[in-house]
Amino acid sequence: MRFVLPLLFVSALSASARAEDPPKVDLKKGVMFVGRTEANVVEVCPRMTGYLTRVLVKEGEAVKKGDLLAEIDDRPYQAELKVAKAKLAVAQARAKLAAANLARIKQVFDKGAAAKEDVVKAELELDEAKAEAEAATAVGQLAELNLAYTKLPAPIAGRVMRIHSDVGNLLVADKTAITTVIADNPISVVFDVDENTALAINCALKDGGKLVVEVGLNDEQGYPHKAEANAKALVVDPKTGTVQFRATLENPKGLIIHGQFARVKLTVQPK
After folding, report:
1. pLDDT for position 173
2. What is the pTM of this model?
3. Fewer CB within 10 Å, N- or C-terminus of the chain?
4. CA gap 157, 64 in Å, rounded
């Protein structure tokens, strides 16, 4: 009997330490979250190093994909292309000469006035000349590509943001960002959902439910913007115990700005 009280005490401690059942999530009523808007943002960096010679757009200007934004000094790359073309012409001439020499030696060999070794040597010389011509062709193609990279087109359709470099500045390849192009229609809202709610959403969707996402900005009443979210490829972050959702909504007038806070309401409609 003297062990009863300690055992009861331990049992009471175990019961108090036992995890409580998580609260049920009412997906019909809706669950609210706070998120942040994200547009498609692409930095424009040169692929070649050179001095900025022209900027053809203004901040805030709408551009299409492929529109020319800026140019860097292409004179060094023009010179490299000329050198490459000249080397290619020399290599091609050597290849023609080697082919003609091989044909001549074969004729002489057929008449019995040349050794087999002479034919083999001429064939090897032709192979070497062809390889040099192919290498020169590749160098020329690279020079053409480098020259084309002196022009910086818009990587996506959108609006030009702040221009960071003025004409005359040295731009370093893959490091110096000239500007940023932002595409904000459609725009996304990113928000974190707790694991319990994410599990409830996943179960409801597997039962045939439909996920409904509504978004409201800080200066708006309710959730006037309809959005779409893909809940089929969600992963729980073990560090935070949350699942990041991304919902996409239309933004034709550009009223929703990249990086601002947004209120999100999630509901699951039954079958």
Report:
1. 95
2. 0.74
3. N
4. 4
